[in-house]
Amino acid sequence: MTGYDFSAPFTFGVATAAYQIEGAAAEGGRGPSIWDTFSHTPGRTLGGDTGDVACDHYHRFASDIALMAELGVNAYRMSISWPRVQPEGTGRLNPEGIAFYRRVLTMLREHGIRPVVTLYHWDLPQPLQDAGGWTVRETAAAFARYAAAMAREFGDLAVDWTTLNEPWCTAFLGHCSGVHAPGVTDPATSLLVAHHLNLAHGMAIARIRGELGSRARCSVALNLHVTRPADPDDPADVAAAERIGTLGNDVFLAPMLEGRLPDALVAATSALTDWSFVTDGDLAVIHQPLDLLGVNYYSSNVVRRRRATDPRNSGGHGDTGVSPWPGCDDITFLDPAGPLTAMGWNIDPDALTELLVGLGCRFPGLPLMITENGAAFPDGADAEGRVEDVERIGYLEQHLAAVGRARQSGTDVRGYFLWSLLDNFEWSWGYTRRFGIVHVDYRTLRRTPKASFAWYRDVIGSRVLTID
């Protein structure tokens, strides 16, 4: 038996995102986002699903917070819907949207649950997209103004602020492969977007700290990639894995945390762009001190230099035929080895330990937080209404143990946010993939805690994980 100690002040939490759970898409003065437009475009989401209703959290937040209190979490990672609080993306704030989030934040505090606020979880206001979206620098400036407004409005209730969630997905799934909103398929544009997201992050942190001073704890949540070469003795495969690491990780880590544009990134994408959009002073703006780094992790990859017989990599649902990896058409992603989650992702907890330890060595003194980790499985209620999601429990147990091993090695990991509290709208997969520890009947919207809910509650209560 192996035991892992997660004594306080280690944070146990759950995470959600506004567009995936709130619904009420046209209520309370909310304006449209790029995901409203994208999901209402035929063929973009599986089954034509949209977030119009989602889990109806907008009307049911009180009972959802009661579930969190029953679970015993210390913190809740939530996102603010930019178009709900500022429908045009700039200018006037929507008082109904502001009032809604004040009610949510206040109730969380009343239950002893610390809110961790994500400012951007992919729902750009459609008017900003109509003006160029993330392809124009002005959107970064608009985001910084929005961040400052949120700090002013909610700084009495929230001290933890995450600028962006998974900017890699916004840049490369949204603007390269086009399987996410706004559905653009232009590799060169995706690199421009990545830079503007970096700028938005740095500008927003400066504005938040300008409003709240040292009370603000600022972070970003990155979905960092663990990529291994198919043959570690083949220099071509090793180089392929390193290039994916550059395009998947250093495109954000290096500017945000080191204030530099990696030479390897410039070289890997030289056929697409000369990076002249990076102007004097940009890297200094981007390179803001962080109070912690959020790490989202689900699975790992194995790659090799493409062979003539290799099939083209599939982009998953909504595959456009364009890879999300600009400048990497000569690299093949191998099919993952089983067992797999419902997303077709492998289960590799050792890669999480590897990732955390590596980050701890590269950025000593920077605390880490698991801001998302979880798994989708095709679980459903039995005849008695129970959801015995034993596969999810196994996944969570293995990955929390992986965090424990990283901590035992001396890596400063401060907490773990399970994705997700609720089954919800899973982007282009619609409602076909369930990540929640609470089952949602999408017809009645009834919530049913799964077996994994009870398991996580017990771990939180004891703060010890014991593995056989």
From TrEMBL:
It comes from the Bacteria. Keywords: Carbohydrate metabolism, Cellulose degradation, Glycosidase, Hydrolase, Polysaccharide degradation. The keyword Hydrolase applies. One of its GO terms (biological process) is cellulose catabolic process. Substrate binds at Q20, H121, N165, Y298, W419, E426, W427. InterPro entries: GH (IPR017853), GH_1_N_CS (IPR033132), Glyco_hydro_1 (IPR001360), Glyco_hydro_1_beta-glucosidase (IPR017736). GO terms for molecular function: beta-glucosidase activity. One of its GO terms (cellular component) is cytosol. Its EC number is 3.2.1.21. It is an enzyme of class 3 (hydrolase). PROSITE patterns: GLYCOSYL_HYDROL_F1_2 (PS00653). The keyword Hydrolase applies. It catalyses: Hydrolysis of terminal, non-reducing beta-D-glucosyl residues with release of beta-D-glucose. The active site is at E166 (proton donor), E372 (nucleophile). Belongs to the glycosyl hydrolase 1 family. This is Beta-glucosidase. It comes from Acidipropionibacterium acidipropionici.
